[in-house]
Amino acid sequence: MENTRLSNASAAKSRPRKFVAGMAAAVAMAIGCSGALAEMPTSGSIIMFGQSRENPYFGQNAVGAADIAKKFGWDLTYVEASSQEQQDAAIQQMLATGNKPIGIVLNPVSGAAAVASELAIKQAGIPLAILNQVPSAEQKDLFDVYGGVNDFLSGVDAAKLLIAGAKKAGVELGDGLVVNTVAGHTAAQQRVEGFRSVMEKEFPSSHILADVNSGGYLENEGYSVGSQIIPANKGKFNWIYGVNDALAFGAMRAAKESGIVPGKDALFVGGTCMNPTTNAAVMAGEIVGSSVQSPYIEGAAAMYALAAFINTGKVIDDEMYLSSDNPPSIDEPPHRWNFMPNTALEGTEDAYKNTVIWGKTAQELCNYS
Question: Among 49, 100, 213, 287, which has the minimal tally of Cβ within 10 Å of its Cβ?
Answer without folding.
Answer: 213
